[in-house]
Give the backbone structure.
Amino acid sequence: MEHRHADLHGQSLVKAAEAALTNAGQQWTPMRSKVLAALCELQRPSSAYEIADLISKSEGRRVPTNSVYRILDVFVETNLVRRVESANAYVANTHPSCRHDCMFLICDSCGDVTHLDDDRVARSFRNAAKFKGFQPERPVIEMHGRCARCS
């Protein structure tokens, strides 16, 4: 069964992200706000370098990529951002109050990434791992192919 929720965008996403971060005991700083805003503005899986470049251009000063990486690590840990492992890129989580495993469909033609929320598949994958004596901690499932627009 697919997991259902409302995807947030714009100011409602920023408010939900800020609430999720502070509820996790972290501070919502101006730079963290800028990193999330840049990631949302890019509207595609983006690297820390791309995010740092976008912020640097808007700030008129160089923003260190390692600072962006540290912020992205906090965001991944607190469920604000998801990491697309095979692309070494990040996407904003449009429903940060909802925790579930990462499952992505990645189009090799246009680069579009679709996040799937299917509790049945996630549960099956976790159970198969446990059956083999493996304790899953951070399941990530990525499927490469072509999206409907590129097929």
Observations:
- The beta strands are 81-84, 89-92, 102-107, 113-115, 140-145.
- The longest helix spans residues 10-23.
